[in-house]
């Protein structure tokens, strides 16, 4: 009884600690989107230039997420996560001095050479930032599979996944206020960095690794073929079969690619699009923030539906919600010019509500299929594919909006959501997990 009580205490302590810790990564990652409009006006940097940077750093983040997925399955999550966030804090402090660095390199504070130097400095700092941003999700995903049984993972992982929206939403509102009240893009980096530094200390103090690290037994009913022979050779063979050669993981990865195209189109370009529609920076921040809040609620509902109505088969929830997302985006495209911002906000919120179910649950499906021994490796592979989306949402959308404006973007996103659903529907009857059960051995 005491062991059960202790396990519950540590389970929720790990969930809450990783939620708070991971939300801090968003404070020092999504702040750049709110600095972009001010930097564009102040220095004449084009959407195409910003788009190229966003594509580059998104690819870097995807590669980092992939590599850190494999690292996370074999390292202590507490230190893996805290050290990565600490580097991101330092990089964001340096962001605020980008104009000083550019002036030092070029010997001036204006002109084409100065702007080019600033763009290059932003690119370098964003690359470094996103290399270490990859240390955020993978350790958390590994911990969740060690602390939460498969039959509860969709519900509790959905609760955990609200940290994405909490971090992005709070960062959006905060940076919207910073720009609206001060107009100083530097504070969009320095203030979030100060908050995230506190997050580093919090992770070190509050977080621990697997149940074994606090003297508790591992979860029951999570046997795998790796148990008892966890050598490097056997582990590599296990990952190769369970992850790299697993068609289920690849279908989930392709689906997530289309989910992230829609998600990043809103998160990366939402502030600029909304301000082009004559919304204030403050209101644009609230609008993107509400999109994230709706996503939080959507995740919780989707997780509950998966574990209760679909009996742990989260892929079914994902398939249905991708179609509903497409319908909301199509409705946004059909809105006539001059429509009420409130109506736009409602439809955008509904799109976030349905989109964030798949965003949270595709990783749950993968984690349950490959088991807790390779969960982060699988999610790392999915992350690599999903962040290939930035080729489209960064340079692609930057060029598209510079040339054609924002008119057909929502139609394009609706089509993307429908295509994504085609890849998840074949998994409708997939088994709920890949663990070895007693009846499997018979």
List strands and helices in order, with pairings.
Elements: H1 2-27, H2 32-43, H3 47-72, H4 77-95, H5 98-106, H6 112-133, H7 137-147, H8 150-182, H9 187-206, H10 232-244, H11 247-276, H12 281-308, H13 314-334, H14 341-370, H15 375-386, H16 390-404, H17 409-424, H18 438-441
Helix pairs in contact: 1-4, 1-7, 1-8, 1-9, 2-11, 3-6, 3-7, 3-15, 3-16, 4-6, 4-7, 4-9, 5-6, 7-15, 8-12, 8-14, 11-12, 11-14, 11-15, 11-16, 11-17, 12-13, 12-14, 13-14, 13-17, 14-15
Which features does this protein show?
442 residues, mainly alpha, Growth Hormone, Chain: A, 18 helices, 79% helix
Distance between the termini: 32 Å
Q: Tell me what portion of residues adopts beta-strand conformation.
A: under 5%
Any idea what the shape is?
globular
Q: By helix and strand content, what is the structural category?
A: mainly alpha
Main β-sheet: number of strands, strand sense, barrel status?
none
On the 0-100 scale, what is the average pLDDT? 85
What is the number of helices?
18
Considering the protein shown, what is the CATH homologous superfamily?
MFS general substrate transporter like domains
Q: How much helix is in the residues?
A: over 70%
Q: Which sequence of SSEs, written as H and E, runs from N to C?
A: HHHHHHHHHHHHHHHHHH
Rg for CA atoms: 22 Å
CATH topology: Growth Hormone, Chain: A
Quickly name the level 1 CATH class. Answer: Mainly Alpha
How many beta-strand elements?
A: 0
- What's the domain count? 1
- Give unreliable regions as ranges: none
CATH architecture: Up-down Bundle
């Amino acid at each position: 009884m005491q062991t059960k009580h202790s396990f519950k205490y540590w389970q929720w302590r790990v969930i809450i600690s990783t939620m708070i810790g991971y939300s801090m990564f968003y404070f020092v990652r999504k702040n750049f989107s709110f600095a972009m409009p001010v930097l564009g006006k102040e220095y004449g940097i084009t959407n195409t230039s910003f788009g190229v940077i966003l594509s580059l750093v998104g690819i870097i983040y995807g590669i980092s997420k992939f590599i850190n997925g494999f690292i996370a399955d074999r390292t202590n999550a507490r230190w893996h996560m805290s050290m990565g966030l600490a580097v991101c804090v330092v990089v964001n402090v340096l962001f605020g001095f980008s104009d000083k660095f550019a002036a030092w390199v070029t010997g001036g504070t204006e002109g084409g050479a100065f702007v080019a130097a600033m763009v290059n400095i932003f690119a370098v700092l964003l690359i470094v930032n996103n290399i270490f941003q990859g240390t955020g999700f993978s350790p958390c995903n590994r911990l969740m599979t060690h602390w939460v049984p498969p039959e509860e993972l969709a519900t509790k992982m959905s609760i955990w996944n609200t940290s994405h929206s909490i971090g992005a939403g709070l960062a959006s509102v905060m940076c919207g206020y910073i720009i609206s009240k001060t107009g100083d893009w530097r504070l969009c980096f320095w203030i979030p960095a100060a908050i995230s530094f506190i997050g580093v200390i919090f992770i070190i103090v509050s977080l621990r690794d697997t149940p074994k690290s606090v003297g508790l037994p591992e979860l029951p009913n999570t046997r795998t073929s790796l148990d008892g022979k966890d050598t490097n050779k056997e582990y590599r063979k296990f990952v190769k079969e369970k992850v790299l050669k697993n068609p289920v993981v690849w279908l989930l990865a392709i689906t997530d690619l289309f989910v992230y195209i829609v998600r990043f189109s809103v998160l990366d370009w939402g502030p600029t699009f909304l301000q082009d529609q004559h919304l204030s920076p403050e209101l644009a921040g609230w609008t993107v923030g509400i999109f994230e809040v709706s996503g939080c609620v959507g995740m919780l509902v989707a997780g509950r539906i998966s574990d209760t109505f679909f009996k742990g088969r989260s892929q079914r929830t994902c398939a249905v919600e991708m179609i509903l997302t497409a319908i909301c985006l199509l409705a946004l495209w059909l809105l006539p010019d001059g429509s009420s911002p409130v109506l736009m906000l409602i439809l955008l919120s509904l799109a976030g509500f349905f989109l964030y179910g798949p965003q949270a649950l595709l990783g749950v499906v993968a984690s349950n299929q490959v088991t807790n021994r390779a969960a982060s490796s699988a999610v790392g592979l999915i992350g690599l594919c999903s962040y290939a989306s930035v080729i489209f949402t960064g340079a692609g959308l930057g060029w598209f909006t510079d040339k054609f404006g924002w008119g057909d973007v929502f139609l394009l996103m609706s089509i993307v959501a429908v295509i994504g659903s085609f890849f998840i529907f074949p998994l409708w009857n997939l088994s709920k997990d890949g663990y070895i059960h007693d009846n499997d051995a018979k």
